[in-house]
Amino acid sequence: MHRYRSHTCGALREADIGQDVRLSGWCHRIRDHGGLLFIDLRDHYGMTQCVVDPDSKAFGLAEKLRAEWVVKIDGKVRRRPEGTDNPDLPTGTVELFIAEIEVLGEAGELPMPVFGDQEYPEEIRLKYRFLDLRREKLHQNIMTRGAIVDSMRKRMKDSGFFEFQTPILTASSPEGARDFLVPSRIHPGKFYALPQAPQQYKQLLMMSGFDRYFQIAPCFRDEDPRADRLPGEFYQLDLEMSFVTQEDVFAAMEPVITGVFEDFAKGKPVTKKWPRIPFAESLRKYGTDKPDLRNPLVMQDVSEHFRGSGFKVFARMLEDAANQVWAIPGPGGGSRAFCDRMNSWAQGEGQPGLGYIMWREGGEGAGPLANNIGPERTAAIRDQLGLKEGDAAFFVAGDPSKFWKFAGLARTKLGEELNLIDKDRFELAWIVDFPMYEYNEEDKKVDFSHNPFSMPQGGLEALETQDPLTIKAFQYDIACNGYEIASGGIRNHRPQAMVKAFEIAGYGEETVIERFGGMYRAFQYGAPPHGGMAAGVDRIVMLLCGTNNLREISLFPMNQRAEDLLMGAPSDVSLKQLRELHIRLNLPQA
């Protein structure tokens, strides 16, 4: 028999009754039932109930065992007594009657229990992550993550993509987020950067004649903490294709992403044919470029009903052609208490309030706005929004470029408060026609709005003749249930167009050559039209595991301050190391 086990803790079944077996694992739970000791023994594969009575020579040692001790147990498999089966366990019809126990590893007093899923402070969970990972739900999430990555990899290869690994040490580039810099010992004063994404390398692969590339790529960004991204590093399904249009990318990737979701949705419906929503329409209808389409609420422009009305606040705003009034329907929200609660919520968000109209019995409008604009306009708003008695509508007004984010938050809040969101489905959509540029108020200049390497719609001609803020890009995202899970574009592969695109954003040709010299040179020697995208592995796994915390699907994440509490990173380094790297510290004054 093997030194440690003849079976795993998830393997025994009724067919094994009567066999002498050996198991090894962790003492998950120990129960004393009036002279009989029960030990739930756990390993990676499952759990087996083991039992010992006072007549066994192993009983004395069994009494000393504590939670999370690692033990080896020899014994005979037997049928559980009638009425004690556990249908939740694959091993639930049998138990191991203990003949012998050997302690392989004792455990000290636990800083947090492994049994159960009770909440514990994040600081403790991350510091003792090796214990946290033993917990059933988190352990299963990590295994699901691996299976999802396997599914992605298989589907990509089945679709004709080839897997490549691009460099981890690369050059710093101005792509919007902060680079992690790595000092070079043999080139004093110079630095490598960890890649924020393999963007340039994957485009260079297309220049090199490789037609369809993908990898499960690690990406590194030294950004301030964000709720929807792990600090430090994250993974993406990165891909690029040659001789393709936007439609070709959609046709290749839609079945891959849909298939991955269907594999792990546990029966929940997944969008079959994805809608394509222009960026401007998404902001207009949903107040976000990553809409949660499980929420049925759609905002509408109701400016005409307030123009010249008795509600002077909105009427005066609308004298400025840039301003509008948007309505968010609230089916079932037509009570004074609910409307006042939404108004208080808006004030808590830093807004002056949230105007509303309620429709009472008979369809008559009520509330301050209704009283000011009169029954005819109130009825017109109700008809436009398709509302009825017992419903309400909420209003935001001003310059849409300034209020759309708040309007989106209000739409989400209403959907949640009115229980309109179907949580048991996955709604996927393409968001298309992103603006190529945006105006940077802080620096008072035109800047790239998204990916600087995207092809502008209209090509070089658009760059030379159009107002930059009106140019759309061949750029697209995938949204799912309120999250952006992928982003991509058709690339700007023509050298003149690339230089012009960067000039508009304030970068001269010399800067393009300095920062993107490899790719710029490659474009001079026959560049195929190409495009691709990158899908966030972490966010996809998070959605499929049914959690809204990325730390619940990652092995060894950092905390929100970008600290690894388990390994103690970032850490001080010795003066000797600094001298070898020709670095002198200039720390801020405490």
Question: Could you explain the architecture of this structure?
Answer:
With 590 residues, the protein is an alpha+beta fold. The protein has helices at residues 59-62, 122-127, 129-132, 136-158, 199-207, 246-264, 279-286, 303-306, 312-317, 336-348, 368-385, 400-417, 459-465, 495-504, 509-523, 537-544, 575-580; strands at residues 20-33, 36-43, 46-52, 70-79, 94-105, 162-163, 181-183, 191-193, 212-221, 232-242, 276-278, 300-301, 324-330, 355-359, 365-366, 392-398, 428-432, 437-440, 445-448, 475-480, 483-490, 530-536. It has an eight-stranded mixed sheet, with helices on both faces. Strands 1-2-3-5-4 form a five-stranded mixed barrel. A five-stranded antiparallel sheet has the order 12-13-16-14-15. Helix 5 (199-207) packs across helix 15, helix 13 runs parallel beside helix 14 (495-504) and helix 14 packs antiparallel against helix 15 (509-523). The N and C termini lie far apart (63 Å).
Strand arrangement across the biggest beta sheet: 6-9-10-22-21-20-17-11
What portion of residues is helical?
Answer: 25-40%
Strand content: 15-25%
**How many DSSP H or I helices?**
17
Alpha-carbon distance between the two ends? 63 Å
Q: What would the principal axes of the Cα set say about the shape?
A: globular
